[in-house]
């Protein structure tokens, strides 16, 4: 068993602080172990200990200058911390120099959060085309198309997710929304989500209400004509 696997076992058992403590101690004596830097930075980011994660990654980059994986983790740290002005140039550089599909995806996520939908879509589609079966990229494309009001396009990407993961709760709900918005049968998708994840269904139900209002308004507009 490798050292990184030992730390991962602690993390998976819920002993997260101990995993971080042991991994940090290990790195003090093994400063050229790149996977260990990546692993610890991921843990610290997950724990939202952003200052420690940033300090660690900057130290790692002094040992492995411009390593793409370290740069990606640094960009992800800034993304999670919602410091998009620092995250964007890192991912842009990775796209330009490394043609990294994951960086394309992250730029899509950032621009989506900033409601720059056209820009978000360009990056999300590129990431999805690099791996048409990627669940996260397909979900992002679907979400962007939904936000732009294009339910037919969104449906295609959520359908891609369901082809890979039929029990994906989020994809079932969102695909159901696309069908409902197009006045197609959607009940089985909502019923599945309500049964499998009732709390999630309650949290997301407002989206269904919003689309109902949109459809009612559209119907009224047509009647007025």
TrEMBL record:
- State the Gene3D superfamilies in the record: Tetratricopeptide repeat domain
Q: Which keywords describe this protein according to UniProt?
A: Repeat, TPR repeat
The yes or no answer to whether the keyword DNA repair is present is no
Q: Where are the TPR repeats?
A: 34-67, 68-101, 135-168
Asked whether the UniProt record includes Repeat among its keywords, one would answer yes
Give the protein's recorded name.
Tetratricopeptide repeat family protein
